[in-house]
């Protein structure tokens, strides 16, 4: 399985940004998909996940109401729409996939929230 994230960049506090992750090499609809992030000097942390069928989503508390995760089976992508961004949202964002207890990671994309 390969995961390729894109869409990172520099945004001002209060702004919005969308991330996308292209999935290949496996049965897309079988995988739970999600996003993690890692700030400088900190451990990688969970951000959001969406179930294999898309019917269930989970978010870390600090992004609830601001971030939205979604998946598109026709395009084999998982997206993260981020609004009301804060400086503490800065980090490298990683796309994640899981099936049968096996984790798959893509290369990260940098998100910087700064004025």
Query: Which overall shape is indicated by the principal axes computed on the Cα atoms?
Result: globular
Averaged pLDDT, please? 96
Please tally the helical runs, counting DSSP H or I stretches of 4 or more residues. Answer: 0
Indicate the radius of gyration in whole angstroms. 13 Å
* Strand runs, count: 11
- Poorly predicted spans: none
Distance between the termini: 37 Å
Order of helices and strands: EEEEEEEEEEE
The largest pleated sheet is described as: 7 strands, mixed
Percent range for helical residues?
A: under 10%
Structural class by SSE content: mainly beta
Strand content: over 45%
Keywords:
115 residues; mainly beta; four-stranded antiparallel beta sheet; 54% strand
Overview of the structural elements:
By secondary structure, this protein is mainly β. It has no helices and eleven strands. A hairpin with a 2-residue loop joins strand 9 (91-99) and strand 10. 0% of the residues lie in helices and 54% in strands. The chain is globular, with a radius of gyration of 13 Å. The chain starts with a strand and ends with a strand. Strands 2, 4, 5, 6, 9, 10 and 11 form a seven-stranded mixed β-sheet that branches. The protein has strands at residues 2-6, 9-11, 17-24, 32-38, 45-50, 57-59, 67-72, 77-82, 91-99, 102-105, 109-113.
């Amino acid at each position: 399985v390969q995961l390729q994230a894109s869409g990172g960049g520099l945004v001002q506090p209060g702004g919005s940004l969308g991330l996308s992750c292209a999935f290949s090499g496996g049965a897309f609809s079988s995988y739970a998909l999600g996003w993690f992030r890692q700030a400088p000097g900190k451990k990688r942390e969970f951000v959001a996940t969406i179930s294999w069928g898309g019917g269930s989503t989970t978010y870390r508390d600090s992004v609830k109401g601001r971030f939205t995760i979604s998946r598109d089976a026709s395009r084999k992508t998982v997206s993260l729409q981020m609004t009301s961004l804060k400086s503490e949202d800065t980090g490298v964002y990683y796309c994640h996939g899981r099936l049968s207890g096996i984790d798959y990671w893509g290369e990260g994309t940098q998100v910087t929230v700064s004025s």
